[in-house]
Amino acid sequence: LKRMEIAGLGHCDFIDRPDPGGLMQALEELDYLAALDNDGNLSEMGIIMSELPLEPQMAKTVLASCEFDCVSEVVIIAAMLTAPSCFGAPPVDLKPEAIQCYVKLQHPEGDHFTLINIYKAFKQLQQDPYCNEERWCQDLFLNHAALLVADALHSELTDTLKRIELPISAPAFGSRTNTINIKRALLAGFFMQVARDVDGSGNYFILTHKHVAQIHPLSAYGAKSPKLGLPEWVLFHEHTFSEDNCLRTLTHITPEEFVQMVPQYFFYNLPSSESKDILQSILNREASLCQKGKSHKETPEDQTTDRCVIQ
């Protein structure tokens, strides 16, 4: 609607009028994502985001990946999360077997990286003329139709990026630098979806609204997937509050990575909590170190008391 330059969304004659609170929250999120200018219209960033057939947070993540040279990997994540879930729905008696299959595909950095593993394995399989895609998916309890949709979305996103002349980095999945950059890109779009394990037992406190949720069992960090331990801080893609109060598709992050990527005006609007205090102490420490670094480089006449801003 913003791209169509429809002003006064609260006064539009919607066939099915959205909840006013939800509408205001959507505008607030667009503002946090730097998709709106000071007049409430789409910013340059917002216009580019609207070119991508993705929800705003994922669109911002893809654009950030251009800056962090991890486009190839992030486009896979975007396609896999936009398509229906690639995980099948096995019968109850086969769930333990399905979980064991998923464990084989898991990546130690988290669920977003696991999705890359699955997509790459699927694409590699397609190159083998003697392999049956559907049988392979069936054996691993994966949804073949969903993977085909993800593959089509991947092609569409890649074509869109080329059309609007954004850079597409060469694949570098597996390198430490690439892993860090993928997390930075994810945080650029999903900084509003971060949670902290407050007691070490999997009770995750969501920073934005002080709700506590658990990890979904099919996550790489789920209780039935012992390959990975429980991380203290996670970025999550979805919170199914009304269904099972679980966080789905998580990746481990550090609080230092979070404070480096989060917009300050969003951080200051977070409700007070122990988790926010921890982040604030990191911000203060980083600012102090930055200020000391500036002091060593400046002459006494040039020194100022400006606070180092961590973006």
Automatic annotation (TrEMBL):
Domain Helicase-associated intervals: 25-116
Q: Which SUPFAM superfamilies match?
A: P-loop containing nucleoside triphosphate hydrolases (SSF52540)
User: What's a Pfam family in this record?
Assistant: OB_NTP_bind
UniProt GO cellular component terms: spliceosomal complex
* InterPro entries per record: DEAD-box_helicase_OB_fold (IPR011709), HA2_WH (IPR048333), Helicase-assoc_dom (IPR007502), P-loop_NTPase (IPR027417)
Q: Any idea which UniProt keywords this protein has?
A: ATP-binding, Nucleotide-binding
Q: Where is this region: Disordered?
A: 291-311
* Keyword presence, ATP-binding: yes
Q: Which GO terms describe its molecular function?
A: ATP binding; helicase activity; RNA binding
Keyword ATP-binding: yes or no? yes
Protein name as catalogued: DEAH (Asp-Glu-Ala-His) box polypeptide 32
Q: What are the leading ranks of the lineage?
A: Eukaryota, Metazoa, Chordata, Craniata, Vertebrata
